[in-house]
Amino acid sequence: MSPQYTAQKSRNQGREGWSVIFRHPVRLDPSTGRPGRRVRRGLGTSVDTEADALVDQLNEILRTQSLWDPHCRQQAAGLFDSRVVEVFYEDLETTRTDFRKIRDDLLALPTTSDGYKHVLLVGTTGAGKTTVVRQLLGTDPETERFPSTSTAKTTVADTEIVLTEAGPYRAAITFAGRDEVIDHLTENVSAAALALFQGKSEEDALRRLVDHVNQRFRFSYVLGRPEVPGDDDHLDDDDEDEIDDEEGEAEDVLGLADLEVIDPAATVALLVQTVPRLRSMVEKCAANAHEELRATDEDARVVEEIVEETLDTDLRALEEFHAVVDGLLHEIELRFSLLTEGELRRTRQGWPLSWTLETDDRAAFLKTVMRFSSNYAPLFGRLLTPLVNGIRVAGPFVPTWAEASDRLVLIDVEGLGHTPKSAASVSTDLAKRIDEVDAILVVDNAAAPMQAAPVAALKAVAVSGNSGKLHFLFTHFDHMRADNLPRFADRKRHVLASVENVLNAMGKELGPVGERAVRTQLERHCYFVGGMHRPLDSGGKEGKRTAGQMRSLSADLSADEAAPDTGPARPAFDRMNLSIAVSEASRNFHTRWRGLLGLTHNPDAPKQHWTRVKALSRRLGEGWGDEYDSLRPVADLRTELQVQIFLLLQRPARWEGGEPTEQEREAVINEISSAVTGKLYALTEQRLKADVQNAWLEAYRQHGARSTFARARIIDADVFGRGAPIPTAAASPDRNGFLKAVADIVTEVADENKFVLD
Known about the structure:
Elements: E1 8-10, E2 19-28, E3 35-42, H1 48-63, H2 73-77, H3 82-89, H4 99-106, E4 117-123, H5 129-137, E5 158-163, E6 169-175, H6 178-197, H7 202-210, H8 220-223, H9 249-254, H10 258-261, H11 264-293, H12 300-316, H13 319-335, E7 343-346, E8 352-359, H14 362-373, E9 388-395, E10 408-412, H15 428-436, E11 439-445, H16 452-463, E12 470-475, H17 488-524, E13 526-528, H18 540-558, E14 570-573, H19 575-596, H20 610-622, H21 633-649, E15 654-656, H22 662-690, H23 693-701, H24 707-723, H25 733-753, E16 756-757
Parallel strand pairs: 4-10, 4-11, 5-9, 11-12, 12-13, 14-16
Antiparallel strand pairs: 1-2, 2-3, 5-10, 6-8, 6-9, 7-8, 14-15
Protein name: ATP-binding protein
Region (Disordered): 537-570
InterPro entries: P-loop_NTPase
């Protein structure tokens, strides 16, 4: 039988309205992977008696199991207050909000039929990608600070900018969902507690409390980052180039009115006081665990490992732990009260969903939008940057080095990150963007060798048939100072020689077609710039040369390119070779992930810490993500299939309709690759996410002694073994269903593109 849950009302200090807290009998609890998720929602009233009546109605639903099905919502609506119905049935069915569609409804992007080109910028964190966007916009780096730049990860939300010829400045911004924010806050609080358990300093625990480990949710931007006495490096490296000005300038940027809405001192006190509260909870959980295990001194090390693995689950069972999360969430919600300009739209439960603004005042526009994109350290505690998942801006932005803006839509996404070893794949979202856009601008640092992450992006472009979209921009050209590189031409040759190593490696992995396609684009669409952090018209000879390169780049991105001619010839392929390709892809995938899970030794894919694997299993088990940081099983499987199919396409059994030219051969291969890629997204998500969701949940539920190994075995056998089994010679529907699914896709593409699969 399901446990009987009871709701109770609650009110945060300083908040007039009542909230309700209860364990949901259907929604999954992140700590256990079983029903019983803790829910806290506002009741929309500050009247005690009304709140009591609403809580009584909610308790009636909790007692009536027949009402727990999502389809009973309409029945419940006829029996209970709409606020109670909304609280119980909200997010009962797992749905993923389409934030891009929300932005489309608020501010539609112009298309190619409007004469616009969509340009995707990709590059390693710190390569200068966002600085390039700033130059294409012509925004002043000192007075306008949009988009924000830094030496480390800056872009954490998709930023889409439309360069219009005239008209007002407009913005449409969407925010991460309430549950996503709560989940990351909870992970932060748990990480801070774990740091205390491991004997780390309170300063370290405080940092983990406000900044998520993957740097996506830096709540310090929203809540502030308390200074620790004697700690001179409390700011991240990415803030160093943002605090050269007097801190008093911060008041000119957002205004003193902010301080009338929030009390930074109270927030700092809350954060600082949270650390000893967590220490008390940790000591309580550790003592209980030691008592249950009846540990002796000889068992101390083993017991400590067990306690560490169960600490997160034990902490989440404490109401005091969730009270800490509630307090932090309350402080975050207060920051939305600072939005006095524009229109803020909320969900039916009151959580911010989107914000829009339209004005002819450029200065006021950029000043307001800064609240959603800035990483300016003196403003910490009043920014909303980490809560944003998408920024769309349109306006008559004109670079200082151009007479008029070209008709471009610039799409800046999260940096690829610094990856010293091989990166298997790019994220699913980025891969889909690659398919959708008209041009791809790879931004890389000329002063350093190209790293694994941008190389993975180049491979993703090549195997998806999108090589013809590639353009290259090498930044930091002014930093290449050496006696053997006295001239611009010398430095250019040096950079291209470095890229040559990447192209040779790509040729070995992707075949001659993949290498040749990227090499052709590099020769035709390659630019070199320096001094991009300052206005180019004041940079002397270097600035003029960079301005010329930027003008050529902008015109190149805007130009229309004729679609390559595929000619009359069509390839014919042996179906047996497709079986071999799928087997190789599956084998490579399993080899990589057995290394990541620690089941075998793989120097190219070393074992990941158990906390990262657990976080991954949780996201896939709950159905709200398919990756955690650089762990991307769905994307890895898709990439392996793309690579092997791309290689297969280069080795047809014969050509029918004549022998194609080299250009026609490449065009046909790219056309087929693109069509196959479009269908692989759904297949890989279905096989490794939807079909095996319960197995992911079971992996997440593991805790206690040897839970790390048990979790790895479940993922290897019940997730990957079922979702992407290595095909065998013996007939087996279970093991060869994956092969058949891929073969069906290729057969469908063959029919659509008029090629033969014997």
